[in-house]
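Dear colleague,

Thank you for sharing your sequence with our group. We've completed the structure prediction you requested, and as agreed, I am returning the results in plain text so they can be pasted directly into your records. Please verify that the sequence below matches your submission; if there's any discrepancy, let me know and we will rerun it promptly.
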Amino acid sequence: MSNYKRGTNCLHAGYVPESGEPRNIPIIQSTTFRYGTSEAMGKLFDLEAEGYFYTRLQNPTSDRVAAKICALEGGTAAMLTSSGQAANFFAIFNICSAGDHVVASAAIYGGTFNLFAVTMKRMGIQFTFVDPNCSQEELEAAFRPETKAVFGETIANPALTVLDIEKFAKAAHAHGVPLIIDNTFPTPINCRPFEWGADIVTHSTTKYMDGHANQVGGAIVDSGNFDWTKYPDKFPGLCTPDESYHGVTYTERFGLGGAFITKATVQLMRDFGSTPAPMNAYLLNVGLETLHLRMPQHCANALAVAQFVKDHPKVAWVTYPGLEGDKNYETAQKYMPNGTCGVVTFGVKGGRKAAETFMAGLKLASIATHVADAKTCVLHPASATHRQMSDAELEAAGVSPDLIRLSVGIEDVNDLIADLAQALETV
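Please find the predicted structure tokens below.
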């Protein structure tokens, strides 16, 4: 369905029912699948045949939804995971092991920063964090001989820094490594990183793709563009035989378009089991069917809110990449000319205490750790999602102590602005 527009693919990609089959993607709520002979099942274990035998690795419901996301991003293969954290972990760990190194933007979600800087560091994988607005020379200086990937977020959560994808892709490819982009905030409706040089895309599908806080999930999509075989010494897991599958070499058996996702599925999902429930995949698909309608409304509402708080006397500053004059505006116009996301950040005059007073005064918006939902929600990251970071790390990530992250929903924008106005009066 690559010839269809994104809105059509939101509804139809990934699953085409035959005559008499259910029109909606069916929920295959089964752990196991029956086969007539041991030989038939054996071919699955040897990766010689396609099919399903245990939902910890793959499930038809999940695969059909993954195929839809793959079509939306313009990739060659995709998989679902149990969360966005699992997706980012798998994307890195699929090509990195102890002793390896990754260059990452410093402006990323706090949970991802902790995954990289603490947990994966304990696994022997080192990360160098760079300012996303660094010069090409500063970016080049971050690479090492053992560097295996570059990672960034299209729009950073919650700093809202817009990554210069082409700059980071150019540096990654010059060093023979892929660029991995978390595209959660803009979604493929507003940005398709593969068109700008990214090689792997990840998502927290918990956010806009679901859109209704119904399920936690993640996704990984491969562009099929990165040639792992040019660097067999850097990526032995993809380019040399895997003895756990009778010596299969993924790039030889599945080609550049399928090697990365196949390995992540049959190795990492097999061993870590971060699989989504079929019901969660089904709920995700329900959200995907309206993604192309919701994203423009999120962006329109967020722009109106950003314009309101920018002019309010009790607001110290505001950041929204879709707001003309914002430091990220020009980069956002390059990569996302039709809209960015529905998240606005700002600071209330009076610092941390004023921020807490303001949030307590909100009536329509909910204080929640969630973001990118149909319903408006608000968070103080320094005391929640980013509380594990030091002041220096907060500054590097673009998160000031007074920062309020407002995830603007799709309610009537006049009601949203009225709620903000009355809450600001309490400060």
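Summary note from our side: The first helix runs from residue 6 to 12.

Kind regards,
the structure core
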